[in-house]
Design brief:
Elements lengths: L4 E5 L3 H13 L3 E5 L2 H11 L3 E5 L7 H10 L8 E5 L4 H9 L4 E4 L4 H15 L7 E4 L2 E4 L4 E4 L2 E3 L3 H12 L7 H9 L8 H14 L8 E4 L3 E4 L4
Parallel strand pairs: 1-2, 1-3, 3-4, 4-5
Antiparallel strand pairs: 6-7, 7-8, 8-9, 10-11
Helix pairs in contact: 2-3, 6-7, 6-8
């Protein structure tokens, strides 16, 4: 399944960077635009799967960007999620009337935003709902938070689930402990690198009930990867 592309049209650099970091961590390809004019150009060139659109953009406003997109045949059905500091009911209605698919008022929680993005993608383009990931005989259901291996249920704690979820999105790629800490625990949380080893150990134990091949490869002095050929 191809990686969904999201254009983030946001003129606050700090917020744009934060959005890019968190969306890329979720496995999306992210393109940034600092104003409405640039957003229209990037959308035209990249043909994204979703647009995160700030209401108050320089040059061309978010509302105007949305209006123009809805007028063009190629972008008429592009999912648009509006970000705005305006919480008033009339503004929300105006945003939706212009053709936005959903609306998130700042300040918002990243968890809520990511859930809204997944919901919009699922609703509008079911083929993009990357809710089931598989590698070899392992299947991860990201919505139900369930894991199966060779048909049997694998019970994982939340951290082990997030570890497996991250590894299965990049099969064969080696991640250092620091990269896994960043992706699973977050860059603003202080956790010792040794903690990764402990959770990898728990993940291994849950995945390997005895006779199966260990899918997690330890790469000496480099890190870990999910590799069925290990």
């Amino acid at each position: 399944m191809s990686t969904p592309t999201i254009v983030v049209a946001e003129d606050e650099d700090a917020l744009a960077t934060l959005l890019q970091y968190n969306l890329e961590k979720e496995g999306y390809r992210v393109l940034l635009a600092g104003d409405g004019e640039e957003a229209l150009i990037v959308i035209d060139e990249a043909k994204p799967d979703l647009l995160l659109l700030d209401w108050m953009l320089p040059k061309v406003s978010g509302i105007e960007v949305c209006r123009r997109l809805r007028q063009k045949q190629e972008t008429r059905n592009l999912p648009v999620l509006m970000l705005t500091a305006r919480g008033e009911e009339t503004d929300r209605i105006r945003g939706l009337d212009t053709g936005a698919d959903d609306y998130v008022v700042k300040p918002f929680s990243m968890t809520e935003l990511l859930a809204r993005i997944r919901a919009v993608l699922r609703r509008i383009r079911p083929g993009l709902a990357d809710d089931r990931l598989s590698h070899g005989d392992i299947i991860v259901d990201r919505v139900a938070h369930r894991v199966k291996r060779d048909g049997r249920e694998v019970h994982l704690g939340p951290t082990e689930f997030r570890l497996l979820d991250h590894l299965i999105q990049h099969p064969g790629r080696v991640f250092s402990r620091e990269q896994l800490l960043d992706a699973v625990w977050g860059s603003d949380v202080y956790v010792e690198a040794r903690t990764v080893d402990v959770h990898i150990g728990r993940l291994r134990k849950a995945l390997n009930s005895g006779r199966e091949v260990d899918p997690i490869r330890t790469v000496r002095s480099a890190g870990y990867s999910l590799d069925m050929g290990a």
